[in-house]
Design a protein that fits this description.
150 residues; alpha+beta; 4 helices; 8 strands
């Protein structure tokens, strides 16, 4: 093999290797991704409390640090002014358990009393989420899932 072909091949390997390293570094910086999101509301009855359960599969190359969850009425104040990532910082966290190499199955469940249900707006509700990866990357969505009260 001629020296020019070998040098060209070596240069190509450096370029390909560098591109691979860039791709791996870039993948580590990707924000978390949510899939299979589902919200289920069960109204309370005179015999039992109700509940709101939200589940989602969250994937992040560096792992999942947390998933914050906030349910809000579609006709409420956030419908006009918009919900932001900052609004979810103090929200409650879902419980996340490993469900694969870089995926966690996150579940948020809260009981709903008859008094709470009576004070809640009837109609369509949204679930907002703020996923945080271990590397600090975040993903915010104000309408990850919907459910109906009433």
């Amino acid at each position: 093999m001629s020296r020019g072909i070998m040098l060209g091949s070596a240069a190509a390997l450096v370029v390909v290797g560098g591109a691979g390293a860039f791709a791996l570094a870039h993948a580590g910086e990707q924000p978390p991704a949510l899939k299979n999101s589902n919200a289920r509301y069960t109204a309370p009855t005179k015999d039992r409390e109700g509940s709101l359960t939200f589940t989602a599969d969250v994937t992040a190359a560096s792992g999942i640090k947390s998933l914050k969850v906030l349910a809000w009425p579609a006709e409420g104040p956030f419908a006009k002014k918009g919900l932001t990532e900052k609004d979810l910082v103090a929200a409650e966290s879902a419980t996340c358990k490993p469900a694969g190499e870089d995926t966690a199955r996150c579940t948020y469940k809260v009981t709903v009393t008859a008094a709470e249900a009576a004070e809640s707006a009837n109609g369509r509700w949204h679930v907002a989420t703020l996923a945080t990866a271990k590397n600090g990357a975040t993903a915010f969505a104000d309408k990850t899932a919907t459910f109906t009260i009433g």
